[in-house]
Design a protein that fits this description.
6-stranded mixed beta sheet, single chain, 12 helices, 5-stranded antiparallel beta sheet, 21 strands, 441 residues, elongated, 36% helix, Immunoglobulin-like, Rossmann fold, alpha/beta, 27% strand
Amino acid sequence: MLKSLYLNNRFFLVIIFLVLLLVASYSLVWLFPIAKVLVFVLIGLFFLDTLLLYSKKTAFKASRKSFGRLSNGDKNPIHITLQNLYSFPVRVKVIDELPEQFQERNFQIFENLSSQEMKNVTYFLRPTKRGEYNFGALNVFVSSPIGLVARRFQFSQNVKVPTYPAFFALKKYEILAFSNHLTEMGIKKIRRFGNNREFEQIKEYVQGDDIRTINWKATARRNTLMTNHYQDERSQHVYNIIDKGRTMKMPFEGLSLLDYAINAALVMSKVTLSKDDKAGLITFGHKIDVVLPATREQRQMNKILENLYNQKTAYKEANFERLYLTIKHKIKQRSLLLLYTNFESLSSMMRQVVFLRKIAASHLLVVIIFYNTELDKMIFQNPTNTEEIYNQTIAEKLAFEKKLIIKELQKYGIQAILTKPKDLTVNAINKYLEIKAKGLL
């Protein structure tokens, strides 16, 4: 009982008031009997308050509910259900012991519940790291209308919840695709250029068909316009390749570049499979980590999700030579390779361009690098002293060098994207749709 009994601020305020009253009674003697009576009243209310709170063994219920896993980088709802089983209204203070990754020390929720009332409370958590998150106890401090003491109840102790790459985005893109509202996410409708060589059938011309597909021989035979129809090319191999080197550890808005790449790769894999293509995955750092062959089997998304869950950087330089050798020996069919990496200078890219060119000789390679959005703060500021002018000049040089990297890659026939971290997923999908529309693969 003593372990669960806590004194409220109201109790200490009353004690302070009585102490001041007793001190004042030294000068005003008539206050002493009043103070004495109030002390006994306080003692009586204290025991009455305690008796009310401990009159029932099971007097309050609470529970914490969340998804079986958290989505990295997204706001995850956590639901708390409170139920008052007392015969009187209570004041409730909820302290949820959040995982240490959030470093939250002052998390509190206050609610008022009438007798036999049940109430649902929701708060949100945004994790920025993958891995296991350990929730401690759900502490509920219940006070009666007297409010001198509180009784602590503990529920849902020591719950482990894994945090996976941003799987919320999968549902979001699926819903928007189903409702034909993908343009709200920035996904562009890209006009298809030409047709592939997989002929399907000849049909009568209808308004809207491409006049370039008219089959004049069939038209002459049937005496009506006939057009050739082609199947969209399917089962193409698309690999998301994630660099886990030290340059991918840089954080933006709480998430590292590695996490942005992982989240984008997850969504890209889902989009790839929805387009009837085959999705694969490669992760590498100073050595090759994961090589998941591209397939369209039902369990492929689960395999990709599980492999992305445990990816961590080793703070070492990425080995592009090993990547090239792995691709050469493991991927025999011409494939679309989306390489998520980051080059901070032109010289660092030139050290690796020989391997990128060799990869691009056999596959359609798209190199995706990140624009440092923190540079904009310095570039667009109004400098007031020499130091700020110097910083602004360096920032402009670094930003321009990123554009030079893109130009240099394109000079060698390598597709390249420079993107802000938050726009990575949308830009990657747009590039994939563009490649499909143009029939480049």
